[in-house]
Amino acid sequence: MQIRNLFKTLFNWELWHFYVLYAPISPVWLWYCIRSRSLWFFTPSNPQITFGGFEGEGKKEMYNLLPPNVVPKTIYIKQGLAFEELLKRVREGGFEYPFVVKPDVGMKGILFRIIRNEEQLIKYHARIPVRYIVQEKVNYAEEVSIFYYRYPWEQKGVVSGFIHKELLQVKGDGVSSLKELIEKHPQAKHRKAEMEHRHSHRFERVLPEGAIFYLSFAGNHNRGAKFTNLEKEINESLTSVFDELSRNTGFFYGRYDIKANTIEDLKQGKNFIILEYNGAGAEPNHIYDCGMSLGKAYKTILHHWKVLYKISRYNAKNGYPCWSYKRGRKYLQAARKHFKMLEKFD
């Protein structure tokens, strides 16, 4: 079984470690650094967001720039706040269980939780070591990602990627235990340690036939979410929605994670909520789960890097210089230290 999994990993580039996948094309990234005379050439790409949105920016920054009608109801909770004060703020904010909690500065679904009762909130608040957000659980049916970019000298941009996300889940058959369903799931069975950590206390539960059980609420490829490419749904109406957002926010390059009532509603710019925006560090995740060859995946990534370089260079020449080496190094070190800490608590 271990040998079979090894060969599956070797011959499926989507399962490769991030650094293994990107190593062959990393000289191109280095070339852009050299041409820009800055390791942080990307920082002017989204000048309204810290570090261009490459890594370590807070969600509050992004939400403050977006129109209020496309942002989920959110409050920010400081570490160490008295629990009575927390409950008061939750009540005054009009939140009802279940709702979402996650770090203000986070990534990859780390410490993302659905809170269903006061007991769960007490445990989360007592354990999390950083400021976090309490956020309404958006119940729109469709979860999608949009990769969008716009050159600052142009009014119209490009929706280069559009995917539908299916969260990591199993479906009950009325006979099998949750543990057995996980062991048969093509993605979940390879995440044994994570599944045991999160769900071992439920392993013996038998799900009714047809019942859906979510193993993770994080819509990330690295957390087992399944992506469906919606490239054929990209049209002028959809692009116009994000053109308007870009002009209003100064987001020139990145990926929007969205929940929408329907795909058609999103195209018309209604009944959708932006959960997150990932800037210069966003991966074009439409390369996954669509049968794309490694060569085409590299071509797609390199195209986006070229776009990022052009946007950054233009903005750098028009009032938004690249960060200095010292400033960027200090910021990145702090951000990575922060994420390592979160991973331990997750």
Write up this protein.
- The structure is a single chain.
- The chain has 346 residues and is of the alpha+beta class.
- It folds into 3 domains: 14-70 and 140-165 and 225-345, no CATH class; 73-137, Dna Ligase, domain 1; 169-215, no CATH class.
- It has 12 helices and 11 strands.
- The protein has helices spanning 2-10, 18-22, 26-36, 59-65, 83-92, 118-127, 178-184, 192-199, 236-249, 263-267, 294-316, 325-345, and strands spanning 74-77, 99-103, 113-115, 132-136, 142-149, 158-166, 169-171, 212-214, 226-229, 253-260, 272-278.
- Strands 9-6-5-10-11 form a 5-stranded antiparallel sheet. It has a 4-stranded antiparallel sheet with strand order 1-4-2-3, with helices on one face. It has a two-stranded antiparallel sheet with strand order 7-8.
- The relative contact order is 0.18.
- The model has no long low-confidence stretch (mean pLDDT 90).
Compute the number of structural domains: 3
Helix proportion range: 25-40%
How much β-strand is present in the residues? 15-25%
* Global Rg: 21 Å
- Helix segment count? 12
Q: How many extended strands?
A: 11
Largest sheet: 5 strands, antiparallel
**Alpha carbon gap, first and last residue:** 29 Å
> What is the approximate shape?
globular
Structural class: alpha+beta
How are strands sequenced across the largest beta sheet?
A: 9-6-5-10-11
Low-confidence spans: pLDDT under 50, at least 5 residues? none
Mean pLDDT: 90
Strand and helix order: HHHHEHEEHEEEEHHEEHEHEHH
